Amino acid sequence: MTELLGFGREDVDRISNDSESPDWIKEKRATAWQAYENLPMPTLRDEMWKYTDLSTLNIKNTRTTEASKYSAVEKFESFPEEAVKLLSDEAVQLEENGGMCKPGLLIQHDSQVTFTDVEKELTAKGVIFCSMSDAVRNHTDLVRKHFMEKVVPVGEDKFSSLNAALWNGGIFLYVPKGIEIKMPFKSYILMTDGGKALFHHSLIVLEEGAHVTYIEQCRSEDYATDSLNSSVAEVVVKEGASLDYITLQNWGNNVVDISTRKAVVERDASLNWMVGTLGGKVTRSAYETRLIGQGSSTKTRGFFLASDRQHHDFWGLLSHEAPNTTADLLYKGVLTGKSRSVFRGLIKISEVAQLTDSYLTNNNILLSDEARADSVPTLEINANDVKASHGATVGNLDKEEIFYLMSRGLTKSSAEKLIIYGFFRPVLKSIDSEILREHIYGFIDKKLGA
Amino acid sequence: MTTENGLLTIKDLKVKINDKEILKGVNLKIGPGEVHAIMGPNGTGKSTLAYALAGKASYEVTSGSVTMEGENVLDMSPDERARKGMFLAFQYPSEVPGVTVDNFLRVAYNTVKKKELSIWEFRNLLKEKMEFLKIDESFSGRYLNEGFSGGEKKRNEILQMAVLTPKLAILDETDSGLDIDALQIVAKGVNELLPEDSSVLVITHYQRILRYIKPDFVHVMINGKIVETGGGELAEKLEEQGYDWLKEKYGESGKDNNNVTANN
Ligand SMILES: Nc1ncnc2c1ncn2[C@@H]1O[C@H](COP(=O)(O)OP(=O)(O)OP(=O)(O)O)[C@@H](O)[C@H]1O
Ligand SMILES: [Mg+2]
């Protein structure tokens, strides 16, 4: 079998040097690389990869970006043209805010941080929002406690190990005790060429009682050759804290995205995931939430719109490891063309997690005969006093509904669109930012052929 | 301004559903501003006629013609018919999750009226109609028919009619399931919120609603055909005597009525 990926030990060394990694990071990279080499490449025989055939991917020649490719810019306008193009909506917002990026904005271009701006007052209070490379050098103590330790330990699986060895992008967000910020921290991950391999490793730590929102968006145009993006995020939400984590994947049609985001949620803390997948060629996203503290909770709202030959593979784990925890995951997809989706979800309730409520739901609408959606929700319950349920549906648009709307004058396509928006609404309404919602609607419109 | 054909002309309309003939030659002419009522036993094809007029896809028209202001309706898609001024208040309206009443109706209004009212402009228009129909404000933000009670769904159909002001409103048992007060409000809506020259086709089992929406013509449909046509007094007679005398006169199957045409 030919190799799926073409990376070697020399890439690890080069990235270590380029990013001026401290020794402890170099060691982690080396250990991770070893783990990557030792672990077998997943195949369709692996339960976790049963629906996504990696052997058909064409990403062997993808390469990481050289360190000196882009220099950091002070001003948004000074970005290379192709990057500015991808950020037009953000530029509008910036202008409205008089050039201020409150509370924080971070832009990564081909996995290099080229723009960072954080509200000064917040920095003074101890809030940190910076690139991961900066964080491992400048905030070692804060980072080291969590980085690749308990949340996503080195060597856990093939792709997170590769990420741990080769990461050069990613963000660090640290919010000290009791700080509440309404406006979202934002980061953009841009790719402006084909044949790339981007590795982001991020860490978000919320101290006790902190409340923030973080929005991460991936964007690129369509290019001729395929690229790989790997994002790994580790999230720690401490006692009584709450985090809204929004990811919007909006890659061009040549990007293979294999990403994992994992979180531990402590006592009375909460974590809300919002997951939007619009672009990409093959997308594999894993979201795992461990509710380790009593009274902790998590909510996931996800949606995707797949077209052409897009392939979406979603894995969600709701792990209840303490009493009185609640989880609620709702994931909705619409498929057109020859697209393909897989939803796998697991509610896992340990012996100690009594009085737990957990819900897992996946609904799919197929707009074409050639599209296909699989759904595999599962339960693993080891406590007796709990409420847990899962449900999955795959169906077509309701003809009666379409006729009803058309009988009021709506064209077939606008009736269908309205029903699809209605289908997504329970998910999209959880996005507070109107600009973001508009961006998503615009994209859906475009994809459905407005 | 209408042609000599009147507003709507149905000639010898035959409709099949799943290969079964349900409408067996319906003739009906509706002039502008007229109110017609169709009554008849369960399962005789009243809703089928309504759906066929609205253009439901699975209904196969095997013969006959339907014209509206001289134009061939049967060639039009359901949305074209709506834009032409046809409106059907459904006997069983669909629930459309996630689609709010106000947003949906604004899209419908802008499409039918070829306007581009903003959310705010439309909200005023909607509010006025809702007040008239005594529909609580909160309904405009609710998902279309989802969780609506039977009566609320019916009232919501009339709200849609009031917003779209069609030339022809077909009300398929809009009165069923309405309490006495609601019935009066709905009737008032039909009488006052439609333009003077709009026509109404009321499908009903009860004479009750016809006391408020006064019909110029009452038709009786039996087994896929209109077998008897009269004025308001026919509805009263049906209320008192039921359909047996008609079934006797025209046979259970309505097959002996070949010489009867519903003229008006
Ligand atoms: N989709 C369908 N498939 C098969 N038969 C159908 C279908 N829809 C309607 N029918 C049949 O057509 C006949 C006429 O139905 P329709 O709903 O038009 O009656 P109706 O006069 O409106 O009755 P009601 O007074 O009960 O509302 C009935 O026998 C019904 O069972
Ligand atoms: Mg009926």
Please state roughly what percent of the residues of chain B sit in beta strands, choosing from under 5%, 5-15%, 15-25%, 25-35%, 35-45% or over 45%: 15-25%
How much of the polypeptide of chain A forms β-strand, as a percent range? 35-45%
Low-confidence segments of chain A, ≥5 residues, pLDDT <50? none
What percent of the residues of chain B sit in helical stretches (DSSP H or I)? 25-40%
Report, as a whole number of angstroms, the end-to-end distance of chain A: 44 Å
Structural class of chain B: alpha/beta
Please, could you describe this protein's structure?
The complex is a heterodimer of chains A (450) and B (264). By secondary structure, chain A is α/β, with parallel strands linked by helices. Chain A has two domains: 2-293, no CATH class; 401-450, no CATH class. In chain A, 24% of the residues lie in helices and 37% in strands. Chain A has helices at residues 9-18, 23-38, 81-86, 88-96, 120-124, 132-138, 140-144, 158-166, 399-406, 412-428, 434-448; strands spanning 104-109, 112-118, 128-131, 171-175, 185-191, 197-206, 211-220, 227-237, 242-250, 255-265, 270-277, 282-291, 297-306, 311-320, 326-335, 340-349, 357-366, 372-381, 387-395. A ten-stranded mixed beta sheet of chain A has the order 2-1-5-7-9-11-13-15-17-19. In chain A, strand 1 and strand 2 (112-118) form a beta hairpin. In chain A, helix 1 packs antiparallel against helix 2 and helix 9 packs across helix 10 (412-428). Chain B has a domain at 8-93 and 166-259: Rossmann fold (3-Layer(aba) Sandwich), CATH 3.40.50. Chain B is built from nine helices and ten strands. Chain B is globular. The two termini of chain B are 20 Å apart. The interface between A and B is medium-sized, with 24 and 30 residues. Adenosine-5'-triphosphate binds at residues 17-18, 20, 22, 40, 42-48, 91 of chain B.
